[in-house]
Amino acid sequence: MSDTAVHEGHRERMRRKFVLHGADVFDSYELLEMLLYFVLPYRDTNPPAHRLLSAFGTLDCVFSKPLSDLSAVDGIGASAARFLLSVGENGKDALLYRGSSLEPFDSYERVSAFFLSRMKNGNPPVLDALFLDNRMCGIAAERLYETDFSSGAVNPVSCVRRALNLHASVVILAHSRLHGALFPTESDRAGYRSFADALELAGIKEADHFLVVGDKLISLKSFRPSDFYGVPKLSEYYDTYPKGEPLQTAATARAERPAPLVFGDDGMLLCRFLSPLYEEEKAKALAEKLLFRFGSAERVFSADFESLLGVDGVGEKCAFFIRLCMALTSRRMTEKFPFGRAVTESEIQEYFTSYFAGQQDEEVLMMTFDKENRPSGVCRLSKGTVNSSNLNRRACLEAAVQKEAVSVVLAHNHPGGVAEPSKEDYAATGALADALLTVNVKLRDHFVVAGCHCVSMFTRENDDFHLHQ
């Protein structure tokens, strides 16, 4: 058997192991070894990965060294060195990215501009859905059907299932018609009611449903003005906007918000992220498809392998690259955390944000602090839903005592969700804070992490949450 065949078999086993079990089961040199697959396709990348860490010590140093230093490592060379530096810079930008995707779809004008920019003249009849969280911020936008809305092929099942999978709180729909008057037919209104009723039964609000004809659109919700679901802020526009009157032209809408689904700099960031792997045009095309599917760069970087594979044009190579780069960047950022010296709250938040980057399961971490207020370690308390039964208080107390902690900070993630504490989070935190006081350990804070957003529970007001500070 040739060396190439042996290497390819080993690589396939490593890739499969990573997809199935994630980065936790790999050493840092193994993650580097897999990254080098992309730039050293026909060589054993294990020795160069070992040499990189032996020469520079940490992943952060590997990705931060000058090109000349990396190129001098045996088996790397200039091409691989440029690849590593590009991955390191883009990965860090992706991990810490806080784009404008959090701008809510809470105005009539913004929602209309969004759909008008997607449904250009000449497109066949389609049904699009905009899935939003409980703050009216975009989760994803998807094309549910490419057929006439009044045809028998359109039903709300796929929309409801997708909304539940995305943990969406609100859905806004729009369907297009090639010809005819900008006036909803009885079939349009019946279809709108069937979707609204099905979503309501699932506990999801349909904020509106638009009909698009040419470069104009109209709200079907205006034909049921007394049955508004109470979505924050959006209702204000329906109270003042002339019922049944078309909105602005598509040209005006595109001037205000020119790029469909590219929230802020998300498209540019994704293009840069994919640039070590693809030429500019292909990277741009893939970025557009990823944004169309997930709605924001942040959600692309948090997506699991199977979800990425579900995007048209994104193969195993691209999906593996995205997941591996995010895992490497997460490891890089958490490895360099300065245990043993005083740290700021922003450094603590960055550590937890980096750790949870791309995590698909909910976990609870505890960071311990000594009497000099220096972090002494981090341990995982649980994996799964945060509630009183799964958050083992005894394990928490044992870890705090073993580390001789004076205080601790908790953190848990909401995968694919919103960085907002739930009632269960508050209940479990209050009970744990009381338990820690029995061993004279103070709970300093509890952070909730979703994507690159980290929220302190102790800065949020909650009538049922009282701690003995």
Defining traits:
469 residues; alpha+beta; Cytidine Deaminase, domain 2; 3 domains; globular
Structural account:
With 469 residues, the chain is of the alpha+beta class. The protein has three domains: 3-98 and 264-293 and 303-331, no CATH class; 104-256, Cytidine Deaminase, domain 2 (3-Layer(aba) Sandwich), CATH 3.40.140; 338-459, Cytidine Deaminase, domain 2. The chain contains 19 helices and ten strands. The protein has helices at 3-21, 28-35, 46-56, 59-64, 67-71, 77-95, 108-118, 157-165, 186-201, 234-240, 250-256, 266-274, 280-294, 297-302, 305-309, 316-335, 345-355, 393-402, 423-437; strands at 127-132, 138-145, 170-177, 205-213, 216-219, 363-369, 375-383, 407-413, 442-450, 453-456. The longest helix has 20 residues, at 316-335.
Q: Specify the overall morphology.
A: globular
Biggest sheet: strands side by side, in what order?
2-1-3-4-5
> What string gives the helices and strands in order?
HHHHHHHEEHEHEEHHHHHHHHEEHEHEE
Number of helices: 19
* N-to-C span: 67 Å
Percent of residues in helical segments?
Answer: 40-55%
Q: What is the mean pLDDT?
A: 81
> Could you list the spans in which at least 5 consecutive residues all have pLDDT below 50?
224-264
Number of strands: 10
| Largest sheet report | 5 strands, mixed
Strand content: 15-25%
Rg on CA atoms, Å: 25 Å
Q: How many domains make up the 3D coordinates?
A: 3
Look at the helices and sheets and give the structural class.
alpha+beta
